[in-house]
Amino acid sequence: MAVTAIVDATLLDGSRADVVLDGERVVVVGPGAGAGVGDRVDAAGGLLLPAYIDTHIHLDKVLIRGQLAENDGTLRAAIDSIHAAKKAYTHEDVRRRARGVVESSVLSGTTRLRSHVDVDTIGGLVPLEGVLAAARDCADIAEVQTIAFPQEGIVRDPGTADLMVAAMQAGADIVGGMPHWERTESEQREHVAFCFELAERFDADIDMHVDETDDGSVRTLAMVVAETERTGWQARVTVGHVCSLAAADDGYADEVIAGCARAGITVVSNPVTNLVIQGRADRGLVRRGTTRVRELMAAGVNVAFGQDCVQDGFYPFGRGDMLEVALISAHAAHLATADEQLAVLAAVTTAPATAWRLDDYGVAVGARADLQLYAAATWSEVLRGQDPPRAVWSRGRQVARTTITRELC
Q1: Is the pLDDT assigned to residue 158 strictly greater than 80?
Q2: How far is the C-alpha of 159 from the C-alpha of 339, rounded, in Å?
Q3: N or C: which end of the chain has fewer CB within 10 A?
Q4: CA separation, residue 131 to residues 57, 61, 191, 291, 322 (Å)
């Protein structure tokens, strides 16, 4: 692979520099560093960022909206609406749809995706097989991690426990869970314990859907915190959604947020989907469907944002565009000051990198060269303008480019 210089780029701190790539790595960052390099990309003062990481998406479900009957928009109805489609999934169908969204994500600046994949007695391992195939298809442009996700529960869906083991044996990277979907508190605890036991067996990280409900009395997050500390799985656990925390009393919220910070648990909020799903029964003051993002950030919890869904039973929109996710999340979580806008950027870059336990991420010497270049020179302008990146690199190779022409006539 040839040496490449991205010249005259603006870095996040506002400084101008050349960034030299050799193979998969950033080897030099500094003014004039690209002099003499034959393969040059003129950044023209545009902002150079690390590529986005979408750490919460469901690639097995993407682009099936047109196959489904309309539903009332609630989580329960969305899950039910997908059952028939899931029974009819084929390996190639899942592969094709997942590949399409990975490709659109790369065009939008994302080169790493972590996908929950349904593992249950309805679809068996077909969804996982399809997403794993798509991950192989796209390996030269993006890295895809897979999560064995028991969407239908474990205790309430007999046979899923064995399928979860089979999924990990078949190549799933991460153990998923959805404990709040079980019927009783004891079954929720059983669900959590099983997931941690499975993670220990395969030495895998954990990434669970937790408390995606408007009911503030649902508190499986506290169970996950306790099990993380009991098993020593600190910094290896991610929890997604956690919508109920917004409705919980402040005493519990303060306690469990402190527990997440103490245990190194990453919280992934998915406002684009939950703004559509949650609060459906509310009148007047409708709940926003997001967790306590600002309080979690203030407590030092690692907070990320995810796309979650793309045109499926839960969410009719989406395109794998993390810049769009960042803007919507900024609105939902009231993140508007200059520092808060930087926190929004972190939530789609460095925060998910922390959840992935990456030690070579960023625009820095030695980092893997997963980068994106914008025409605008500042993050606030990138976020406001919503133009896609001019160029995207994965492992040091340019994998996407976008040209935009605008003129008044």
Answers
A1: yes
A2: 48
A3: C
A4: 12, 10, 24, 29, 20
151 plus 42 within the same structural domain: no
Give 380's contacts (C-beta < 8 A, 6+ positions apart).
Answer: 338, 341
Respond yes or no: is residue 324 known to be catalytic: no
Q: Residue 41 sits in which domain range?
A: 4-51+361-401
Mean pLDDT, the chain, rounded, equals: 96
Total number of domains constituting the chain: 2
* Active-site pick, 212, 255, 295, 381: 212
Residue-by-residue DSSP string for 199-220: HHHHT--EEEEE--SS-TT--H
Pick the closest to residue 268 from 290, 295, 299, 235 (CA basis). Answer: 290
* In a shared domain, residues 10 and 27: yes
CA distances in angstroms from 342 to 100, 146, 380, listed in the order given: 30, 28, 8
- Per-residue model confidence as pLDDT tens digits over 231-253: 999 999 999 999 999 999 999 99
pLDDT tens digit sequence for 132-144: 999 999 999 999 9
d(CA 302, CA 343) in angstroms, rounded, equals: 10
Do the Cβ atoms of 150 and 120 come closer than 8 Å?
Answer: yes
